[in-house]
Amino acid sequence: MQQDILVNWSPQETRVAVIEHGAVQELHVERTLERGLVGNVYIGKVSRVLPGMQSAFIDIGLERAAFLHVADVWHKPAEGETLSAARASQALVPIERQVFEGQALMVQVIKDPMGTKGARLSTQISVAGRMLVFLPQDDHIGVSQKIPLEQREALRRRVQELAGEAGGGYILRTNAEDASDAEIADDIAYLRKAWARIKEAGQRLPPPSLLHQDLNLLQRVLRDLVGEATQTIRVDSREQFELLHAFGSEFMPQAAKKLLHYKGERPIFDLFSVDEEIAKALGRRVDLKSGGYLIVDQTEALTTVDVNTGGYVGARNFDDTIFKTNLEAAQALARQLRLRNLGGIIVADFIDMAREEHREAVLAEFRKQLSRDRVKTMAGGFSQLGLVELTRKRTRESLAHMLCEPCPSCQGKGIVKTARSVAYDIFREILREARQFNPKEFRVVAAPQVIDLLLDEESQHLAGLSEFIGKPVSLQAEGAMGQEQYDIVLL
User: Fold this and answer.
1) pLDDT for 78-112, tens place per residue?
2) Do residues 377 and 370 lie in contact, with contact meaning Cβ atoms separated by under 8 Å?
């Protein structure tokens, strides 16, 4: 499977598209103002110790001092002591006996600043890689709880052999479950180089200073997205190309060889109509080449996908029409999961198939397409109702959540009341107000389409209401109001 990666960079936003067979398969977006501080390592200075709160304020060069709680002060476990027991015993030691004002401390941000609160810190440093997390102050090897129990010990032994006697501990991430020895060894080499650079900067720079910043999207492209199938990584910015080449040459030389600077006059994303694909990925409907289509609805709890034949009548009989539509839908749905970065529970409602061999063929094709996904995905078979349920690990925000926000008119419902329904709501509200108050006049302020309806088709009902309550009702159109919004002013 040949793959190309396109990078579109601007000072405010970085966008990355993964292309396979001329079609966009994945999109990654990072905005400069939305990058957090979690994972950054600083050399800071203790500005205040607060025994009453068992915490300390650390100056790490930000607008507000950061916060270190006694529970986040690390110390090496005694021989035979578990990590949880070590943390419990450490928390019993008062913070004033562990840090002092003016002390230089190497710290890592574990929670971003929020509102008036500064960042939360830990003195336990960890460096994240693609497969592993490196714990330079520890010497144990942990395994993600999401990896099946029977595989953990074998993975632990593999990492011990590959890491050798260089020291430090590791946590195996779920990505390491199916990784080769070469991939794990490359990750170990990268993590050790990163830690060596952090240590050297910590000895050289004065507090407060930034020692290590969590990788940006461009750097994560080299670490996480590049594989043997990757042919080229084209970057449309000369400056970012040179920075990325320097980073890759030091940490990932094989990936750095695939970097190219794109010099074309056309925007790089126009080469494969990436912006058009982004627009389509934000819509509900996905058209299939055959004439069928998918309807994708993303909710808080799960994502539902409905398959429809549409105008497709190309097969010899109805069963073949349904089968071919479902086959194409299976391929398109697997791509949409990657493109939209949909996670959690997904339910696909394929068109009912009468023949068992058709159901098995569609399921086999669907699983084959899902196996290309770098994110862990598990799919079940057809349920009694003909539904296919699957789960896809949430790794980041979906494309829709990143690029969009709820509509101010419908508040994310996707529908609004008709103008007539709003008009009748207004009538009921005027009746309710008339029973409680005795103003000289009621004034209705509403959207222009509601006011137009009240002046035209509903004018007779409005006049009858005014006569019934014995008060005049005036109307005022407000263009800034949504269709469901209105105010009733008592004059």
Assistant:
1) 666 565 665 555 557 888 988 999 999 999 999 88
2) yes
CATH number of the domain that residue 91 is part of: 2.40.50.140
Q: pTM (2 decimals)?
A: 0.74
Say which residues have a Cβ less than 8 Å from residue 460's Cβ, sequence separation at least 6: none
Shared-domain flag, residues 307 and 371: yes
CA distance 139 to 221: 29
d(CA 443, CA 433): 12
Counted residue by residue, the chain has a size of: 491
pLDDT band at 268 (very low <50, low <70, confident <90, very high): very high
DSSP string, 3-23: EEEEEEEETTEEEEEEEETTE
Q: Could you tell me if 7 and 235 are in contact, meaning their C-beta atoms sit under 8 angstroms apart?
A: yes
- Strands 132-135 vs 169-172: parallel, antiparallel or unpaired: antiparallel
Measured between alpha carbons, how far is 458 from 333 in angstroms, rounded to an integer?
47
Bridge partners of 344? 392
Look at the chain and report how many structural domains it folds into: 5
Tokens of 257: 């060889």
> Token pair of 346, please?
């997904």
405: exposed, middle or buried (Cβ count in 10 Å: 0-12, 13-18, 19+): exposed
Confidence of residue 77 (pLDDT cuts 50, 70, 90): low
- And the tokens for 68? 């270190």
Whether 407 maps to a domain, the answer reads no
Neighbour count for residue 151 (Cβ, 10 Å): 14
Domain identity same for 58 and 98: yes
Report if residue 42 sits inside a domain: yes
Give the largest Cα separation in the chain, rounded: 92
Residue 366, both tokens: 């669907």
Cβ atoms of residues 425 and 435 within 8 Å? no
Phi-psi region of 248 (alpha: psi -120 to 50; beta: other; left: phi over 0): alpha
What angle do helix axes 318-340 and 274-281 make, rounded to 10 degrees? 100
Give the number of other Cβ atoms within 10 Å of residue 54's Cβ: 16
Count of CB atoms situated within 10 Å of the CB of 315: 14
Q: Where are the beta strands (DSSP E) in 351-490?
A: 377-382, 387-392, 442-446, 473-477, 486-490
**How far is 380 from 390, CA to CA, in rounded Å?**
6
Structure-block tokens of residue 219: 């750097």
How far is 362 from 256, CA to CA, in rounded Å? 39
Query: 111 lies in which domain range?
Result: 38-119
Does one domain contain both 294 and 379?
A: yes
Strand 3-10, strand 41-50: pairing: unpaired
What would the mean pLDDT of 295-320 be, rounded to a whole number?
80
Spatial distance between the Cα atoms of 88 and 448, rounded to a whole number of angstroms: 64
Q: Which residue has the higher pLDDT, 40 or 183?
A: 40
The backbone torsions φ and ψ at residue 485, rounded to the nearest 5 degrees and listed phi first, read: -90, 140
